[in-house]
Amino acid sequence: MRGVSNGGAHYFQERPQAPSRPGSVDLALPDLHLRLETDSGVFSPERVDLGTRILLESVPRPPATGDLLDLGCGYGPIALTMAARAPEATVWAVDVNRRCLELTARNATAAALDKVRSVHVDEVPPELRFRAIWSNPAIRIGKPALHAMLTQWLDRLTPDGVAYLVVQKHLGSDSLQRWLTEQGWTTTRHASRATYRILKVTPR
To answer: For the chain, which domains are there?
Structure first.
């Protein structure tokens, strides 16, 4: 759901036009090591991007049970980490990009993480509420679309739920924090590393 790929194809297109170029990356964390399939037309296909790694190294463990959400899953590093750290929870990996969803599903199967649900954003059951949302959100889709997306999903947090968003400072982390606060969500800076901010958001 993020950015613009080489050659001008948008990662947030439902069906990327970029020819398939399969590859793989390693996600190495203190508690987890995964080999993940990647492809062209998805976000950061050559390496797990720094923002995602900082998020995964900074946030507390997710709730042990319930429904958890990776908003903008790409090929699945966040969703699979959530599932590995909370094996009894159901992790919903959502994106608009069908190539991403196929990759996440295959990566979850390869890692034997059978409680990952890789689904299009329009296919998430409307009654679901999430105890945690982790996301490297699609900043480059523009503020109106970003704000609409965050409103849609943050309003689906459970009363005790919490979201963690990673945003680069030069891409507007401080202004996004102000906007979220103005909209009524309690928003604080959970961590700061390199040029990235981890925003902690709780229900309004």
So the answer is: 23-202 (3.40.50.150)
